[in-house]
Amino acid sequence: MIKSYRGLxxxxxxxxxxxxxxxxxxxxxxxxxxxxxxxxxxxxxxxVLKMYxxxxxxxxxxxxxxxxxxxxxxxxxxxxxxxxxxxxxEVFFDNEIINQxxxxxxxxxxxxEKLNYYFELEQINLSxxxxxxAIVKNLRNEQ
Length: 143
Prior knowledge:
Strand content: over 45%
Radius of gyration: 16 Å
Number of strands: 8
Number of domains: 1
Strand order of the largest sheet: 2-7-4-5-6
Largest sheet: 5 strands, antiparallel
Distance between the termini: 32 Å
């Protein structure tokens, strides 16, 4: 089963996506991740939206693929003229199985604009061993 999520984030926001269950036997993989500006072609914008396994506190514009808590990242760069190219890039790590909550952060380096997000998660039934392994991995990431 595929579950979809969408929303709008302002510069500096952090949203929580509640995925945890009492027994941890439901896991998820990211299968799609997209970002889009709130006002295409009308504003100067340089935004990054990131998805993490743990809360981040203050969002920033740095993307570090060696960070084991990072699940996905999307960037958008655009200008206030339709003659200037609008660019979007999304990256996600499709082999990650998550059975805890996800945390989204938004940062805009230009003018503090809002950014839409849309992502899809594939729901996976986990065995007891897989659920325990995912929980232990999540606990290690919190330290």
